[in-house]
Design goal:
two-stranded parallel sheet; Peptidase_M20; alpha+beta; 2 domains; single chain; Peptidase_M20C; 9 helices; Peptidase M20 dimerisation domain-containing protein; metallodipeptidase activity; Peptidase_M20_dimer
Length: 378
């Protein structure tokens, strides 16, 4: 929606009162912010930035969390599938998912974490070693709470379809009790599968150490701003990175956020420590900066005025527990004043993402009014 609004501004007639405009379009905002990170600040002369990327119409955002991703590559040993063993797969789905910053405070279920609990339940039911993990994958984007995950188990047919299946079902029922009032559409499906190899017990232990041991969810709420998440981390995805007869390499992706640099660093260090304990190879990208609030900035006051005039309500001026590009871009533009607002968007970074159409018109009207006042101020 921000791109559409910027393009519409460029197509406004000459009679529209506007200041000199520079429209900046970045790539990769949803998956890594590499576009903003790679920006050469000398390209831009303006020092007032309107970020048209926020998802709650009527509110004005003036700060955000910083963050960074960690990728853990885990090479897992395989052994041939024992003769006579059956193979069966399970798929956990129907979870809400959502944005790993904006929705993390709701304690929505992570399909990756919950599926790992199902696997752990299967092994707890068969301590004698006659069950094996074949594979595991789940989640999608780094900044989305995982909605789906799947795993495959193998074992003697009577055990796999008996005690193991019963144990998985029992743990799922526990999850329904834990999350049922929130995750109303959570489902578990099973089907026969095939495989030529299984993970060794040691490899399975290493994988479960990560999937059950890595932090996930809210780590700390802010002491300064009631209700604002200060620090969180998202166990985002498990992907197959490479596959050979004798080994399976999985990549586990986490996304950590915080408005406090030391807290961000602490959680990322913990992730690295846990990863190394499991024998993972760590690739931790440099953290991107947060956006320090400037509530007295001229553009903040003007944005608040025009939104109040259009909506009839005083906008809430606040910070957000998500990674907006304002912090990254602002760091490259000394003296830049920024504000962020936008139409209402639901289900961001998920297949259910949608815009509330009734907020698009007022949002664009506010943008024109704000730019008009900035033109007068210049």
């Amino acid at each position: 929606m921000g791109v559409a609004a910027a393009l519409a501004l460029l197509d406004e007639p000459a009679t529209t009162k506007l200041p000199p405009l520079e429209c900046l379009f970045t790539v990769d905002e949803e998956t890594g912010m590499t576009g903003a990170s790679g920006l050469d600040g000398s390209m831009l002369s303006g020092r007032t930035m309107l970020n048209l990327d926020t998802e709650e119409w009527g509110d004005v955002f003036i700060g955000c969390a910083g963050g960074g991703d960690t990728m853990l590559s885990l090479e897992l040993e395989r052994a041939p599938l024992p003769a006579g063993w059956a193979v069966r797969g399970w798929r956990l789905g129907g979870l809400l998912g959502g944005h790993s910053g904006l929705d993390i405070h709701e304690d929505r279920g992570s399909a990756v974490r919950l599926a790992a609990r199902l696997v752990e339940g299967a092994f707890a039911a068969r301590p004698g070693g006659d069950v094996a993990l074949v594979g595991f994958r789940g989640g999608d984007k780094r900044n989305a709470i995982a909605r789906e995950a799947e795993f495959v188990l193998a074992g003697p047919p009577e055990a796999l379809h008996g005690a193991v299946a019963q144990a998985v079902a029992a743990v799922f029922e526990e999850l329904v009790v834990e999350y049922g009032s929130l995750e109303r559409a959570m489902s578990l499906d099973a089907a026969e599968a095939s495989a030529a190899a299984v993970l060794t017990p040691a490899a399975t232990d290493r994988l479960l150490l990560l999937l059950l041991g890595l932090p996930h969810g809210v780590v700390k709420f802010s002491h300064a701003i009631p209700g604002l998440v200060e620090t969180s981390t998202n166990l985002a995805a498990v992907r197959v990175k490479a596959e050979e007869p004798s080994k399976l390499t999985l990549e586990i992706i986490t996304c950590t956020r915080s408005s406090v640099d030391s807290a961000l660093r602490d959680v990322r260090v913990a992730i690295c420590r846990i990863g190394r304990a499991a024998g993972a190879v760590i690739d931790q990208e440099p953290a991107y900066p947060g956006w320090l609030p400037e509530p007295e900035a001229r553009v903040v006051k003007l944005a608040s005025q025009v939104i109040e005039e259009i909506t009839g309500k005083t906008p809430e001026v606040k910070a957000i527990h998500a990674g907006l590009e304002c912090g990254i871009i602002g760091e490259k533009l000394p003296g830049c004043q920024s504000v962020s607002y936008g139409p209402t968007i639901r289900g961001a970074h998920s297949p259910d993402e949608r815009v509330e159409i009734s907020t698009v018109g007022p949002f664009y009207q506010a943008t024109l009014a704000l730019l008009g006042r900035l033109a007068d101020a210049n």
